[in-house]
Design goal:
Order of helices and strands of chain A: HEHEHEHEHEHEHEHEHEHEHHHEEEE
Chains: A alpha/beta, B alpha/beta, C mainly alpha
Radius of gyration of chain B: 28 Å
Distance between the termini of chain A: 98 Å
Oligomer: heterotrimer
Strand order of the largest sheet of chain B: 8-9-10-5-11-12
CATH superfamily of the largest domain in chain A: Response regulator
CATH class of the largest domain in chain A: Alpha Beta
Shape of chain A: globular
Strand content of chain B: 5-15%
CATH architecture of the largest domain in chain A: 3-Layer(aba) Sandwich
Strand order of the largest sheet of chain A: 7-6-8-9-10-13-14
Number of strands of chain A: 14
Distance between the termini of chain B: 36 Å
Helix content of chain A: 40-55%
Largest sheet of chain B: 6 strands, mixed
CATH topology of the largest domain in chain A: Rossmann fold
Chain lengths: 415, 585, 296
């Protein structure tokens, strides 16, 4: 027996109703967009291991300070700004999914926050595909720049800058044999290879090699013991925490570096992380480190107000990532302001023309191809030496000031 | 419920679920939620594959995600290094994963339970470590970029749905065939399965291979969808997630993995914005389901179907009083002619020792066709060991066993069953999660009957043994006596040449004992041969024409039952135990 | 001298592996289950030791027994809530008897990791060393004092644990239950107490391993993963349930990894043990020291 027309119709209606209900459940909070709606900006960070959570936290601190300052002044285009955070765990696959979620589900107008190169490389593909501006806060790999994507802007540090700093120090110290220990990522390998290339130019006689290790590694003795048997003049540390801490401790434990024979150059900039001294004690004494912030660097007015807000909220010492996080968000908001809209093309055009006085200097983006593409070239940096346990960054020995050459007289060799 | 009936219901529910999924893109156009559903379909496929292996075959592998990862890397690497397009890469991924699954299946063949779980876990870690450390080939943890298939998001959606449909219907076809019975028999009791004639080695490897192929297919599709793959795909936690999806949905059912995958993955995405509680919620769900709802969501529906009251052992036995001559018509009639023909079963100087203990010492005897032989002897005299050698569970150190004149001491248990040598165990071995009817079907199908014939004979046997009332209950719910009868019945679904019965009458109700004894005599009258191990002397005396008595691994007496029982050596060997026996029986 | 250095360091690591693995082996021996949350007992110990010393400033020597207690407590609670139903009603479990333990302990592992992440946070905490940093020169070898001390303590704890199981009253009960659960309960052994005890000891030992290694490997929520995977390899290699087997396999693994990482490949160091395991199982499915059970 066939159902009558009425029954068939009501069945169909019931089916479509339950279907609509299902669709609503599936699409979550699907209905949006009203006039006073906030402008959404996506943030991808490592908030849990194996990513570098410390970096994620410091960037997040800076981003929320900037957010508060912006919204206190009435937001932008009369709309408040809202940040939507996604945890990448420093895993490329998760970063890709996070970027896609932010763009397709949350409808963000830009993405920022990234601080791990492998994740950044994965996410910029998504940003490029959907044509959404991407402010790379702190992923150093040159590959992110040399892809040449117009959506990607880099106000943070870059590998070539660090590699140059390391190569110059090594050349100035006239070292003969150098070993770098790098994490097996785009960041680590990229940096290790750049140092090799730059050393070849600056100090052709120097013998240089690098070892790659797993960033989730816990025991590096198999790498360290052969170095103890045949100690080099310097070891360059290119791991991120927590692997960096384990490596520094184990190098010290085995008496390899810093020692009377071997310098330890820490090139990942970990010495200003709040958990640095919780994890590394005596092992850091005598270590050279690359720094992107030091009190001798001049802070601009915006930098000073960010610093004040940070220190009012926490009693932790100032650090570079916090400034970089704040810079990233300010840059996006400046671009929206200049473009007068959140349309990608307008924002990208505005960003390309940026000349904005930030926390630590005037940010502009180069349009040279290669690793300089859409990069703020003049990121200030310093070289420091740790001389005491539990030393805050502003008390560390400044051996190379911003924009100045290395001062060997200020160096102390470990006993 | 019977496998077939349950499966049909499951297919309907699965089809309904897939139907809903097919309609979703008409109301949801958001790329993100479509993406979530696409990834759910990836998990549903891998989970379905793992369910064939773990849920149906009982091989708890800890490497489901590994095959997804392998599939993804095969097509990814083929594209990256050799420019192979997706339409060639995806089949290649299926083939390579299946081959690796086949090898893994061969390697872990002899491992069970925790050893299997831990070894597959080790395998998973080796593969992941190899991929993540071979930087130059795979780009390691940096992840490998994979070419997209040039279709829209909705295009991908239906692509995945098509693959999922294929996987589900293939799984259904597999389970509906005799393979479904065999796989579940292996899950419930591997040793019993081989005794009923199931080729355990082959079917286990089939399960591993299929499960891997499905994982490979899912992974390859995922690679082209995600366009970036990393060794994270094969993390233990990913495998754990797949296992949990199946557990939450319901292990060993067609619907379970589908429901579990969509629910768990959707939930975890839904909770993403809720402040990182999704892992805690997920962990609690796994624990709560494992602890309180072991049959998963699908188990709820099973719990709703009424269970027929279980008749007691005696009631079932009483039914058996009704005549059951119908089954006889199917049996081959061979008249006993013991005096002239060569023996059906010949044992020549058989020996077996375990470490220092010589359990069987140079045992020789012949069993003539149509005889009922009682194998007696005190505890520890080597009777069960001898039976284990005869049924192919143990290899003899030396000696020859002949079945119908053919040397079979190196044959495998299932081959012997195929030749008509069947066996019943001292401790009941049945397939607990299959119905009594399906228990018989396993034996029938494994011994070469077609489906209709096996069904007909199974029903006739159930009636003969008085089990019709409980035929469709899970065998695990039967009473001890009923379970024994089911196992007993499995020996007769195809007329056997020789049946070995190890303590068939121990610890069962007298009426069931009676059913069995009568059945043995009836079958014997048709020419079937029996070897019965028992301590029950009255029944040995009643049933057996000849007897063999063992003590300390040696045959101490053989011949007419009456003579053996009155042999002074036999009486002496039992004396030490006499007191023991009377108190126990 | 590199070889000798590597062997010594391999042995030191091996003893700490052993401390981890025997707890797992003990649980298997008595309850016939593999505890997939074993690594999280280690994690509890590492956090207990590091957080207690860092926050209260008490001597790390006092934190060691506290870490043991914390691990035992977690072990005890897990046993009572999740494992006991398994054997309390074992006979009635028609469904998922073998899978239950795997799945429920896997869920427990996930729960403990995510709780640690939520409550303590994802940052790493490195525990203080027991002695001031020192290096001991033994002839041509240079040994790190704290590593050596950790290994020595590991050996002492192993000896106590093995002695306890062998000779004490409760140890004998454990052995009885391990041999025959039903028989032991008929003979008057308190099977429930023995099971709780085994979980408590196992949790405590894993936690102690975590505490002893906390100065070298800082505590993070997922720090238990690597010792857990090592322990699985060790117990299968040594034969599930065999304590001497676990100890030998631990030392073997420590030395093999240490040497192979330098002479074969550092990248694949974690796979050597796994490959050895798969090879051993091909030829001896019961492990190096395991006993083959009667199947039929």
């Amino acid at each position: 027996m066939k159902p009558t027309g009425f029954i068939r119709k009501s069945m169909r209606r019931a089916a479509s109703l339950s279907f609509a209900a299902l669709a609503t459940i599936l699409s979550g909070q699907a209905h949006e967009v009203q006039a006073a709606d906030p402008i959404k900006i996506g943030v991808t960070l490592a908030m849990s291991p194996p990513g570098s959570v410390i970096q994620g936290t410091q960037l997040r601190d800076g981003l929320s300070i900037a957010l508060k300052m912006i919204n206190d002044q009435g937001g932008v285009l009369g709309r408040p700004v809202e940040l939507i955070y996604e945890d990448t765990q420093g895993i490329p696959e998760k970063a890709r999914a996070a970027a896609e979620k932010l763009i397709t589900k949350d409808g963000v107008v830009a993405i920022t926050g990234e601080h791990q190169s492998s994740s950044g490389l994965a996410a910029i593909e998504v940003a490029h595909r959907y044509h959404i501006p991407y402010l790379n806060s702190n992923a150093w790999s040159d590959a992110i720049r040399s892809k040449g994507y117009p959506e990607v802007f880099n106000p943070g540090n870059y590998n070539t800058r660090v590699a140059l700093a390391v190569a110059e120090v090594m050349a100035d110290l006239k070292l003969k044999r150098i070993v770098a220990i790098a994490e097996k990522t785009d960041y680590g390998i990229g940096l290790a290879e750049l140092i090799r290339d730059l050393l070849k130019e600056r100090s052709p006689g120097t013998e240089y090699s690098y070892i790659t290790v797993d960033r989730a590694g816990k025991d590096f003795l198999p790498v360290i013991l052969p170095l103890r048997a045949n100690p080099p003049d310097a070891i360059v540390q290119l791991l991120l925490p927590p692997a960096a801490y384990i490596m520094i401790n184990q190098l010290h434990e085995q008496g390899v570096a810093p020692s009377s024979k071997t310098w330890l150059y820490e090139a990942s900039g970990v010495a200003d992380y709040p958990d640095f001294w919780k994890n590394v004690q005596d092992a850091a004494k005598g270590m050279l480190t690359f720094g992107l912030y030091h009190p001798e660097m001049p802070l601009l007015p915006l930098g000073k107000s960010v610093a004040t807000a940070y220190q009012a909220g926490t009693n932790r010492p100032l650090n570079r990532l916090m400034f970089q996080g704040a810079d990233s968000l300010f840059l996006i908001v400046e671009a929206i302001k200049a473009a007068g809209s959140t349309k990608p093309d307008a924002m990208i055009a505005a960003l390309q023309k940026t000349e904005w006085v930030g926390t630590r200097g005037t940010v502009t983006f180069s349009n040279e191809k290669g690793f300089k593409f859409q990069q703020w070239l003049n990121v200030p940096y310093v070289t420091l030496q740790v001389t005491k346990v539990n030393q805050p960054i502003d008390e560390m020995q400044l051996v190379q000031g911003p924009g100045k050459p290395l001062d060997p007289a200020k160096l102390t060799k470990a006993k | 419920m019977d496998t077939r009936r349950r499966l049909k219901l499951e297919l309907r529910v699965a089809a309904f679920l897939l139907g809903i999924i097919a309609l979703i893109p008409m109301v949801v156009s958001n790329d993100y939620w479509l993406g979530v559903l696409i990834v759910s379909m990836y998990f549903a496929m891998v989970a379905t594959g793992w369910n064939i292996l773990a849920g149906y075959t009982g091989q708890f592998s800890f490497a489901p995600a590994t095959f997804g990862m392998l599939g993804a890397y095969v097509t990814g690497l083929a594209g990256f290094h050799f420019g192979l397009p997706a339409f060639a890469g995806i089949p290649a991924a299926v083939v390579v994963s299946a081959m690796i699954g086949f090898l893994l299946g061969r390697i872990v063949l002899r491992l069970h339970g925790p050893y299997l779980a831990l070894t597959t876990l080790a395998f998973a870690e080796v593969v992941r470590a190899a991929i993540s450390n071979s930087m130059t080939i795979t780009r390691g943890d940096l992840g490998l970029n994979v070419e997209a298939i040039p279709v829209s998001r909705v295009g991908y959606y239906y692509f995945f749905l098509g693959a999922l449909l294929l996987v589900v219907s293939m799984t259904f076809a597999l389970l509906r065939s005799r393979a479904g019975l065999f796989l579940q028999a292996i899950r419930d009791d591997e040793i019993a399965a081989s005794s009923r004639g199931v080729n355990v080695v082959t079917w286990k490897v089939v399960a591993f291979t299929l499960s891997a192929a499905i994982g490979g297919l899912a992974g390859a599709l995922y690679a082209h969808f995600a366009q970036l793959i990393s060794p994270e795909l094969g993390l233990l936690s990913q495998s754990g997630m797949i296992v949990s999806m199946v557990v939450i949905g319901g292990m060993g059912s067609l619907v379970g993995p589908l429901a579990g995958a969509f629910l768990v993955y959707y939930l975890s995405e839904f909770l993403r914005d809720a402040g990182g509680y999704q892992h805690i919620v997920f962990a609690l769900l796994v624990i709560i389901f494992a602890r309180f709802f072991r049959e998963g969501l699908w188990g709820f529906t099973r719990a709703l179907t009424p269970v027929t009251a279980m008749p007691s052992g005696t009631a079932a036995a009483a039914n058996s009083k009704s005549d059951g001559d119908r089954s006889i018509s199917t049996a081959r009639v061979v008249l006993p002619d013991a005096s002239t023909s060569s023996p059906i079963l010949g044992v020549e100087t058989l020996s077996k020792s375990f470490g220092g203990l010589q359990a069987v010492k140079s045992v020789s005897f012949d069993v003539a066709e149509g005889e009922i032989v009682g194998l007696i002897g005190p505890n520890g005299s080597g009777k069960t060991t001898l039976l284990n050698i005869l049924s192919g569970h143990y290899r003899a150190d030396t000696g020859i066993v002949r079945l119908d004149g053919q040397a079979v001491q190196n044959a495998r248990t299932n081959e012997l069953a195929g030749k008509g040598l069947l066996r019943m165990f001292q401790l009941t071995r049945i397939f607990r999660r299959m119905s009594a009817f399906d228990n018989l079907m396993v034996a029938g199908r494994a011994l070469g009957l077609d489906e209709g014939e096996a069904q007909r004979r199974a029903n006739a046997l159930l009636q003969d043994l008085g089990l019709t009332g409980v035929a469709h209950l899970d065998a695990g719910r039967l009473s001890g006596g009923q379970a024994k009868l089911v196992e007993f019945g499995c020996c007769f679904i195809v007329p056997p040449r020789v049946v070995l019965l190890d303590e068939p009458f121990a610890a069962i109700h007298p009426t069931i004992k009676d059913v069995m004894a009568k059945f043995i005599l009836k079958r014997n009258a048709l020419g079937q041969t029996f070897v019965i191990v028992s301590h029950d002397m009255p029944i040995i005396a009643e049933l057996c024409t000849t007897a063999v008595c063992m003590n300390a691994g040696e045959v101490i007496a053989a011949g007419k039952t009456r003579d053996v029982l009155s042999n002074p050596l036999v009486i002496e060997s039992y004396l030490g135990e006499e007191h023991d026996r009377t108190t126990h029986s | 001298m590199l070889v000798a250095d590597l062997v010594i360091n391999g042995l030191i690591i091996g003893f700490l592996y052993a401390l981890m693995a025997i707890g797992l082996s003990l649980i298997f021996g008595v309850l016939r289950i593999v505890n997939f949350a074993h690594g999280e007992f280690y994690m509890v110990g590492a956090y207990a030791y590091s957080l207690i010393t860092l926050s209260s400033g008490i001597s790390p020597w006092f934190a060691l027994p506290l870490a043991f207690l914390a691990g035992s407590l977690v072990g005890l609670v897990s046993e009572r809530l999740l494992v006991r139903p398994l054997y309390a009603g074992y006979a009635n479990w028609g469904f998922m008897r073998d899978e239950y333990a795997v799945i429920v302990t896997f869920g427990l592992s996930l729960l403990l990791i995510s709780l640690a992440d939520k409550i303590i946070g994802p940052f790493s905490y490195r525990g203080p060393t027991l002695l001031p940093p020192s290096r001991i020169e033994l002839g041509p070898f240079l040994l790190n004092g704290n590593r050596l001390l950790a290994a020595a303590l590991g050996i002492a704890i192993l000896a106590i644990a093995v002695g306890f199981v062998r000779y004490s009253y409760w140890g004998k009960q454990i052995q009885a239950v391990a041999q025959n659960r039903l028989g032991a309960s008929l003979a008057g052994a308190n099977v429930n107490v023995v099971s709780s005890l085994v979980f408590a000891i196992s949790g405590g030992l894993a936690a102690l391993a975590g505490a002893l290694l906390a100065p070298f490997i800082a505590a993070t929520p997922d720090v238990g993963l690597f010792p857990a995977v090592k322990s699985y390899v060790i117990v299968v290699l040594g034969g599930l349930g065999s304590i001497p087997g676990s100890i030998v396999a631990s030392l073997l693994l420590g030395v093999v990894e240490s040497l192979a990482a330098v002479y074969i490949s550092y990248d694949y160091r974690d796979t050597f043990g796994l490959v050895v395991l798969i090879l051993v199982l091909l030829f001896r499915p019961q492990g190096l020291f395991g006993q083959k059970g009667r199947e039929v």
